[in-house]
Amino acid sequence: MKTEQKVAQRISEARNILVVCHVSPDGDAIGSMLALGLALRQRKQRVTLVCADPVPDQQRHLPGWESIVTLRQDARDGTPLKAKPLPYDPELPFDLVISLDCSDVARLGQAYDSELLAGVPIINIDHHATNVSFGAINWVEPGAAATAQLLTRLICALGIPLASDVATCLLNGILTDTLGFRTPNTSTEVMEAAIQLMDAGASLSDLTDRIFNRRPLETIRIWAMALQDLHLEGRILWGEITQAIRQQVGYKDNGDAGLVNFLNTASEADMAVVFDELPDGQINVSMRAATRYDVSQIALNLGGGGHAQAAGCTLGGPLEAARDQVLSMLHEAWKAQTVAR
Hints:
alpha/beta, inorganic pyrophosphatase (n-terminal core), six-stranded parallel β-sheet, 12 strands, globular
């Protein structure tokens, strides 16, 4: 029996399902969560979608995004806020956890309560090469371009028709993680999945415009401020988003607003990194690399994960210490990989 069939069978047997994704969620994580939630609700299964962090503004065009329970409110003034507890009904406890697009339990953040969920089996569905196989069932395909690509197959294996809203969420995930079908892992299988989703009612042109051409004014302003203080060290380009910048702009989302992807387009750099200071003092580190370079092992060694050319982690502060540690590792990796080439 194929892994996706085992996963489909286990999901079909569950009475109350908790679906979670990684902190600082991207379009693949949010799209995959929503698609699975919408699909399971079509056949009246009980499902709760939870993310530690709020849904980013750029993903709030997706159908049903309001149904995702977020455990941390928007901190517009940069003040750390006490997280809400995981929604839990003792009369009908969760009997299955599905982790989507996350390489290890720690990256689930407060969405996974190890005490409350002790003994509840985890289905781990992911496409990151750095996944540590933490589930009772692990469906990890590093060759897949997006977790949404795997979810497309799963929903079909569940025998659930691909409704247009489900297809829209899945295509959103694929487009996000392939940067509009431009990453090296954009295979014929990815294109076939996209065609399948378009046939089901997802609009490629609308999603492409929303993901890549439209962004909040706050994002443009935070880019403008961060771009004033870029640093090129050898072939490594880096910048940072401090709490002072966040507060001045009023930027409320987690993450770097896609800045690292923009820095990765610089011809003079082979690696790019953005250090993002969070309200609680932790540092979110987003790394990118040119083709034939790899930043995933650095992320994995620091407790994070990702792909060869796109990876990240979260470190304790202060910002200067996190920056020095990561830049040192990037310089060493760049030297070793350049020699190897």
